[in-house]
Fold:
Amino acid sequence: MLQCARRTYLARVIPSRALVRGVRPLRNAGGTAPSITLVRRTDEHGHAGRAYSTSAAAAEDPVPRKKKVWDSVDEAIAEVKSGDVLLSGGFGLCGTPDTLIAALAKRKDVVKELTAVSNNVGSGELGLGKLLYTGQIGKVMASYIGGNKHFESLYLNGEISLELIPQGTLVGRLHAHAAGYPAFYTPTGASTAVEEGSIPIRLNEGGMKAGVAIPGNKKETREFNGRKFVLEPAIAADVAFIRAWKVDEVGNCIFRYAANNFSSTMARNAKLTIVEAENIVPVGSLSPNEIHLPGIYVDRIVKATAPKQIEILTVATDANATDEKPQDPAKKAAIEQRHRIARRAAQELRDGFHVNLGIGMPTLVPEFLPPGVKVWLQSENGILGMGPYPAKDEVDADIINAGKETVTLLPGSSVFDSYESFAMIRGGHIDVAILGAMQVSQAGDIANFMIPGKLVKGIGGAMDLVSNPDKTKVIVVMEHIAKDGSPKILRECALPLTGARTVSQIITELAVFDVDRGAGELTLTELAEGVSLEEVKAKTGCDFKVSSELGKM
Structure:
């Protein structure tokens, strides 16, 4: 587990409602400023509640009477039609609008050929997966496919269209339309398949061997201050399905922990935004300080009835527990190898660093932080200050990491939406990003998201994480060779690139390399115990220099 002691974090309660302060007061007819008061009101059932208003507002009650709450979910979604662009909030199964999705699935004979826009496409028949199984989606615009084998099979067999979009670019394109911009420039995806448009949107029936039906979209580029940027068009949507924690009757929304993710940006984007609320509260019940999404963006509100789902339930292991089953020697060796790599990577971190860890082996790194070193872990779904896995009684469906695993929050942590998260990342505010890879080149190119025609995991946030390598050090941790014995460190990557000249250091079970991204050269700096220089040369697919101060891992 993480070196930082696992404890129940202290921030699990949304700050108590407070009076509005620091606002220039309105003047009433007599020229005096009305005081801001906390008014006690009762709802239609006679239950007492709080309302925030000025004394003048309390007396005159100038709030418009129109409310946005719909009693029927089916009626609320009745205007969704075939061919619509549908935004679906959520990250994995966290914050997914399952009540609205289930209602739309009942209209499978009426509503078809939807373009679904979401970070991912559900898990099995949960989330957007339900609409995949009903055959209502014709095209998906997403960042990450992950383990959704059904969708992967549909795409690889030419039965559905897919536009793979880097996660930060996806939320950026949604934000652009919401803010009135037709397009924006981003460093993410420059000199990769995203710029080149080389990832097919749709294959012919029969898959890759039958050819490409719809090619990818080649992007325009431009240089600013010596860096290449890609021009990305805004995404405009017809409908947005959103889930929120607390919503008042005029649409002001509060999201809970990491359940915000794409939701607030999507809500701002669409012509028609429908929110399913876990709690619908009277107008004035929410402090203005708490609102994440102002009601102006919300058109309809329904009661959320679908239960929350957890895609990957992960809990802390009992330190005192013993495994009575004998461990397979090969499996044990593989685990020890991964731990050696993670332990070496941990030595690159300094106390107070802001660090983003990729899925898989990188998540092991915090277990091996040196004494006295504590770091702030950032997760691209909207957490800064991510803690270890929870105890069984601490599991919270709204607190997950980028790998969809349940986690905790440390004291001093913060949560935010995906747009904010990727501003941190692209802006170079993350000190170190540690990622896995399928291939890395001697110039620091990295490939880690797909094998054309065979494997489509998705880009996720990786392209964004490597988009500012001058400010964010990118470290790759991986096995030195592939399962078939072929080198993973090459002169040039054969797979589609995640980033060009972005990696600064490579750590494997055999060695450590520093990368000169400018010169396109590798320097061997450390050898693992018992590993010879000849073995590393034999298993590396490119030339490299050897440091005059060659050390031991």
